[in-house]
Design a protein that fits this description.
single chain, 100 residues, mainly alpha, 2 strands, globular
């Protein structure tokens, strides 16, 4: 399935802004607005995803966002973007240098 660049860009923005748009892995009001816009655009481009979009709207969590992102961006790219959004760019180096 081919998705528009605007949907991909908004999904990246939502995942990279994890700390801004999520609280306890649930979308806050700003994140919900952005997610609704993504879902509206997706519904317009791919009406066959109507049932999935309905289920995602009812449960606005990180799992729902990742489920849609895996369809739109692909699994590998979604994991990379999600890690950067949650842990930051220097996640691996930070974990190596910390003493626990």
């Amino acid at each position: 399935m081919k998705f528009g660049r605007d949907i991909e860009a908004l999904l990246k923005k939502l995942l990279l802004g994890y700390k801004r748009y999520f609280h306890n892995d649930v979308l806050n009001s700003d994140g919900r607005k952005l997610f609704e816009e993504i879902l509206r655009m997706t519904m317009y481009e791919h009406p066959e995803l109507r049932r999935l979009i309905y289920r995602l709207r009812r449960n606005p969590t990180i799992d729902s966002v990742l489920k849609l992102a895996k369809i739109v961006l692909g699994e590998r790219k979604t994991k990379e973007i999600y890690k950067i959004g949650v842990y930051g760019l220097y996640e691996e180096e930070y974990l190596k240098n910390t003493i626990i």
